[in-house]
Every structure is written in C-alpha cells, then in structure tokens.
Specification:
Elements: H1 16-24, H2 29-36, H3 42-50, H4 55-74, E1 75-81, E2 93-96, H5 103-114, E3 121-125, H6 132-139, E4 143-146, H7 153-173, E5 178-181, H8 196-203, H9 210-215, E6 219-226, H10 232-242, H11 253-263, E7 267-273, H12 279-283, H13 290-308, H14 313-323, H15 334-344, H16 355-372
Parallel strand pairs: 1-7, 2-5, 2-6, 3-4, 3-5
Antiparallel strand pairs: 6-7
Helix pairs in contact: 1-3, 4-5, 8-13, 10-16, 14-16
Length: 373
C-alpha cells in the first residue's frame, strides 16, 4: 500500500540525515541559521542540524525555535484555545482557514507540541515545491505534496482520489493527524469559505458511505486570525490585477509571500480549535444527495470557523472606513484608527494604479470578516 504514495508522501526518518546534510550546506543556510539560532555560530548551527536523525528531532529543535523567533519578533501576543476538546492519542483532520502560506499550519504545530500532542502531516502545494531547500525543509516537516488543479478532468479526478486515499491512510491506519486548508490557496479577500470540492475530495476514498467517509477522519475546524493580515498589500495588489485579467504569478512570488508572511509585524494572533464535527451532525444530512451533502458539510465548517474567528479593532476600523460610517466606533480607539490609516498609506507608493480601488480592496481584506461573523 505504502509504495504507491512515494510521489506525495513526506520524508521518512531514514531519509532525514541526507536531507539535513543538504539543508546545512545550502546557500540559504547562513540566513536560516542566523534567524533560528541567533546565539550559535554558523558552524555550531550547521553541526546541530547535521546531527538530526529523525523528523521529531528536526521539528522539536529547528522548527520549534523558528516558531519561537517568529512569535517573539513579529507578534505582540499569540494565544490559542480549544485543545481541551481533543485527545492526544487520537488522529484528527484539522481543516483550517488559510491566511498565511506557512504560519497557519506552523503555529498549530507549536500549539500541539506545547500541549504534548504529536505534530501533524501538512498539505504542501506543488507550486511551492520549486526551491530545493523549501522541498527539503517541507518534506522533513511532514509535508505532503498536493497538485493544484489545471490538469485534464480525468487526471484531476485521479489526483483527487489519490490525495483522498492518502489522507485516509495517514489518519485511520498510521494514526497521524493531518492539517489542510479549507480551500485551494489562501483567502485573499478576507472571506473564509470552505470549498465543497475539498469535502467531495475527502469522501472519494470511501465512496459507498458518505457519512462514514467523513466521520472516520475526525474533522476539527480551525480558525486563525491575525491582527495585521499577512501579505495584506501583496494580496491587495493581486486582487487588483485579477479584476482586469487572469492573475499569473511572477517567478519567486511564492517565496516572497512566504518570507513576507513570516517577517511582517502581525500584532496579536489567535488560533482557535473549534468543536470537532460529530457523527450526529453528519447523520443529519444523511438524506441529502452527494452534492447537497458536500455543500451542507462545507457550510457547517464555515459556521464554526467564522464564529471562532477573532475580530480585532482593525476589522471594525476597516468596516467603518469602507462603508463611510461610525457604526463600530465603540470597538476601537482614535489612536488605533490613526495607526490603521497610517499603515494603509503603504498603498500610496502604487500611485500609477487606481488608488481609490486599491484602498477599497485593502479595506475589504479587513472588513469582510465582520460581515461573516
């Protein structure tokens, strides 16, 4: 059974030593080391990484410390809640809203590990697997490959089925949890919505019983909210361009978004594990057609995630600015509003574009969650 997933699975422990050698001797290692191990010399950091023999060693040292640095340097506060609903020896499918390429899943790992839970496997878009170091770090970090749509319908069907089978095997046979986003790609406009295609994909590997198909995966919706949206300007520019033509990514853009998301100040960040989806909740949709069932389950996840999404003053400020009123004035201070407007002035450097439209899109990124809550 195992061998058929070799093209998508993460590294096994036996593959870690070689991957660590490659990472430790890559051209970007000095940069990584200075960030993750600020107190070590380059040689010490290299020796430390070269010594790892397992995924767990790499994760509990390098990845844990990387997260600690990101939290300390770019957040004023990082809070999490909901883990008491879960059991450390159970495997779950975490289905999360998706605001940052790396951090959404990485911060969940931090929360899990800090509470004595195992790390999860993580979906990893094939579009990100271009730089060899990104591939090595990803696969050493339990990330598995997910192809983006765009293939022929038949090929897309087979890829989706294989992904579905893989996720089911990891959770039900290997007893490992999995993190995946509720949709393909990040939320760019501030509206978190579960793609019913994701639910359909999850049922494909247990086609004869749509209830069992999802019940066996122990789905836990996850809501992450950043006070300052990662890549807010980049997302605004992408949405702006998308109005006129089909947006095509520029070379290096994904890597730029990863680094921007990591380094940009985020203010407060809150991660909320929602109540797991229960068998009873799924049984309520038993008499629906498959299409209706997928829609109903997607909307159930949306209600959980939207209710758990933490709104910050910025969200209310943006809503008032966008709609030209003071409806939420009690939710923020004049100083907070001033800070938000000052930060929005980063758009002014794009003065060759329609600046009003840019502002409208930017405000939407922050204002739309208020309409959804």
């Amino acid at each position: 059974m195992h061998h058929s997933f070799d093209d998508i699975r993460p590294y096994r422990d036996s593959e870690i030593p070689a991957a660590m050698q490659r990472i430790a001797h890559s051209d970007v290692f000095p940069l990584l080391a200075s960030f993750v191990y600020p107190d070590l010399t380059l040689d010490q950091a290299r020796q430390s990484v070269e010594a790892f023999k397992t995924i767990a060693e790499f994760q509990l040292d390098t990845m844990y410390k990387a997260n600690e640095q990101i939290i300390a340097r770019t957040m004023t506060q990082f809070t999490c809640a909901g883990i008491e609903k879960l059991c450390p020896d159970e495997a779950y499918l975490y289905v999360a809203n998706h605001r940052d390429i790396m951090l959404d899943s990485s911060l969940l790992q931090q929360y899990l590990v800090s509470n004595g839970f195992e790390t999860t496997q993580i979906t990893f878009g094939a579009n990100l697997m271009t730089h060899p170091v990104v591939v090595d770090v990803g696969k050493s970090n339990k990330m598995f490959r997910v192809e983006r749509p765009g293939a022929s319908r038949r090929e897309f069907y087979h890829r989706s089925l294989k992904l579905s089978q893989y996720i089911r095997q990891v959770i039900t046979q290997q007893g490992e949890s999995v993190w995946m986003a509720q949709r393909n790609g990040r939320t760019k406009d501030g509206v978190d919505a579960t793609d019913q295609g994701v639910i359909k994909m999850l049922t494909m590997s247990e086609a004869s019983d749509k209830i069992k198909a999802l019940a066996d995966l122990h789905i836990v919706p996850v809501a992450i909210a950043y006070e300052w949206e990662p890549c807010d300007v980049l997302k605004t520019l992408e949405l702006y361009e998308s109005q006129f033509m089909r947006y095509t990514k520029k070379p290096g853009e994904d890597l730029n978004s990863i680094l921007t998301g990591i380094m940009q100040p985020k203010g407060r960040v809150h991660l909320q594990l929602c109540d797991p989806i229960t068998l009873d909740e799924l049984m309520a949709f038993e008499n629906q057609t498959s299409i209706e069932y997928n829609q109903k389950v997607a909307r159930l996840l949306d209600r959980r995630i939207n209710a758990a999404y933490r709104l910050y003053p910025n969200n209310y400020i943006a809503h008032d600015l966008l709609y030209g009123n003071m409806r939420y004035a009690s939710m923020y201070t004049p100083q907070q509003r001033e800070d938000f407007v000052r930060r929005m002035q980063r758009l002014d450097r794009y003065d060759t574009l329609d600046i009003e439209r840019l502002r409208e899109i930017y405000l939407g990124v922050y204002a739309n969650p208020v309409n959804n809550s």
